[in-house]
Every structure is written in structure tokens, then in C-alpha cells.
Design brief:
Length: 176
């Protein structure tokens, strides 16, 4: 964590990490589901900023488009389609309190291990990425070269699966 503070990015990292944790807690504690969905969107966007701080531009873009855009639209449609006034009130937290405490203790222990410097294995050197021409390129361009050269067939197969799923959803959702 010293490299973040040395670069001046430490304050941004801690600010957006705190924002992400607080908004994630608001997701599960707010009673109004619309406010919970907005808190979830803030959590997604804060995670994207954390990816940007780690120079993972492609992952940050995917985080914004897939989660911030697509998943949030689905959540909002579900919230709007469900009749929330017709749902019976239930005890939300009391039956699950022991499991929540165990999970909270595990999260605190793992965070303590991470902050104390326990090494979970190093990822490769992401600063040195080269294209086919041998020139050094950024993260997004390197992923693009790899995706459209070595993994073109799996990429196209995945796009056909997504197309079939979209057509199937339209057919199933169509009313006669």
C-alpha cells in the first residue's frame, strides 16, 4: 500500500474504497429498493474508479458498461415490475444475524491479512505489454490484440450464444 501513498493516489484510493463499502452497506440496509439500487450503482462506479487507479482501464470500462449499465437496468425493471405494496413485512435481519456476524468477522480477518502485507501471489508485470509490432501499448489495446487474434473463435462463439439468448428472451417475453 506504500506505493499508493507515494504516488499521491492513496487519498483517492481510500476515498473511493470507503465510498464503495458505505454504499454496499446501504444496499442491504435501506428499506426503499430504489435507494438501494442507486447505492448499488454508486458501489459499481466506485469499483470502476478503483480499477482505473490500478491502471486496468478495460476492466473499469467493462465494470461501467456491464454492471453500471446493463445489470442496473435489469434491477430497476424488476423493482418496477414487482408490486412492493403487496409484499408482507418480514423480519429481515434477526434470523440471519449469526451468519452475518461470522461473515463479518471473516471479512475483517481477510482485510487485516491484506493490510498487514500477506502476499497472496503476484500478478504479472502489467506495465510491459506489447502488440504484434513489438511496441509497448496500454492495457485496453493489449487485450484487444489478444482477443481479436488468439481468441477470435471463442469470442465469436460467445457472441452467437448471446444473440441466441437475446432472441430466446424476446420470444419468451412476447405475449400473444
Amino acid at each position: 500500500m506504500d506505493f499508493l501513498v507515494a504516488n499521491g493516489e492513496g487519498l483517492l484510493f481510500y476515498f473511493f474504497a470507503l465510498m464503495m463499502v458505505v454504499s454496499a452497506l446501504l444496499v442491504v440496509t435501506l428499506r426503499n429498493p430504489m435507494y438501494g439500487a442507486i447505492s448499488l450503482l454508486v458501489s459499481f462506479l466506485a469499483a470502476a474508479v478503483l480499477f482505473l487507479l490500478r491502471h486496468a482501464e478495460f476492466v473499469a470500462g467493462v465494470q461501467i458498461f456491464v454492471y453500471g449499465g446493463g445489470i442496473m437496468v435489469l434491477f430497476l425493471f424488476v423493482i418496477m415490475l414487482i408490486n412492493l405494496q403487496g409484499l408482507a413485512e418480514s423480519q429481515r435481519f434477526l434470523p440471519h444475524l449469526p451468519w452475518a456476524l461470522i461473515l463479518g468477522v471473516l471479512v475483517v480477518v481477510m482485510a487485516g491479512m491484506l493490510l498487514s502485507g500477506v502476499d497472496f501471489g503476484a500478478a504479472g508485470d502489467t506495465a510491459v505489454m506489447t502488440s504484434i509490432d513489438g511496441e509497448t501499448v496500454g492495457n485496453s489495446e493489449a487485450i484487444g490484440w489478444l482477443l481479436y487474434t488468439d481468441f477470435l473463435l471463442p469470442f465469436e462463439v460467445a457472441s452467437v450464444f448471446l444473440l441466441v439468448a437475446m432472441v430466446g428472451a424476446v420470444v419468451l417475453g412476447r405475449r400473444d
